[in-house]
KIB1-4 beta-propeller domain-containing protein (Aegilops tauschii subsp. strangulata), 418 residues
Amino acid sequence: MEERAEEIDLSKPRLRAMGKKLPPSTPTAGRRRKGPSLVPLSACKRRRTPEASGWASLPTDVVHLVTSRLLAGDVVDYIVFRAVCSGWRSCTSDARDPTLSRPDLWPRGWVALCDGDGVRPDDAGEIGFFHTRTARRLRVRLPELRRHRIIGFTRGLIILLNKRTAAVRVLHPFTRVVVDLPSLVPVFHDAVRNRNSVLDMNAAVCSASATSIAVVAWFPWTHVVIGAEAGRPTWEVLHQGLFLKSILPFQGRLYATVAMGGSRKIMQLYPRSPHPVLARVPNDFGDPGLCGYFLVESGGRVLLAVHHLTAQHCGTEPFQQHAYKLFALDIDRGELIPVNCLSGHALFLSRDRSLSVSARDLPSVNSNSIYFSLHRDPVVVHSVRTGFSERLAVSCQIHDGKDRIRPSVRLSPLLTIF
């Protein structure tokens, strides 16, 4: 995408309508009209009068219908809608949920983009975001990033680690609401005890209850999974001795592919369950140690993408040996169901995160395809329909042809193609 991302501070209550054209009778928020103004509204319940005209006089039930549809799509549109006039704000819920316990107010669909310049987000004080369904881009100034390191993203929420105190906080990038959690220092000394693990630790946001969130963290070099609920004073050890391969937060819970002996299983990490194993991955792809397992949310369901090698034929390139098999996870029945179509979506798979994007508004992205990166091939696409793989690029902003260069934001290098 060549156009410049919008720069925006969505935390301000009287936000300009972000360039969207409004009806002529609707004044832009924050701008004073020279002529007679509309009659003040009281919670959108006042009956329409000759002095009150335009969108600001919508009945309350119509406003609620509009906002419910906006929330089903993008919380940014909901925030902009409420910023248009005081009447709409008075009859709708504030997007600044102080507990971050309402998933409908999370920035769903928004993912952080890697700038590829090597500048850390805490130094830049801003992050670029991309919406996987609408292809919209926003660049958000976030002074809260100062003195923090990003350790995870969940549905647009940013999980931060304080560099000095090791305290964890969850930040909503568009409302600037912050939920603080305790320091990792005590549990780190008791259970983790590996300083290098902190450099590559990951974390995700889960739903602890109807009014509270939890953060679950895991470490690559120490097979420990810990969790803490907002408002609780300490972290607790959830699992030990697990060899985690791919982890996915989904509908407030946390799932992972786990290596157990010579097989791979999908289990629930949070909340803890007496029967955590949900499904067993078929051993139909050769040595499991040579396969890759990726969990990704797509179209409201959990998909498992198994990366495996096919037989090499004379004259084929090495990247053409790489193929994928897709399964949908039936959580209730504990089954993996083969999938042959992505319904207009494309998957971007990497060790850090895996994403599903709608190809409808992205002409450079092929639908029903899987994009991935190899050691010497930074961008390869696999067609789910034909089963063939194709190399799209021999160079990448954060890939020098030999090794992946550590990006400024932890994200698949494939997303730099946008």
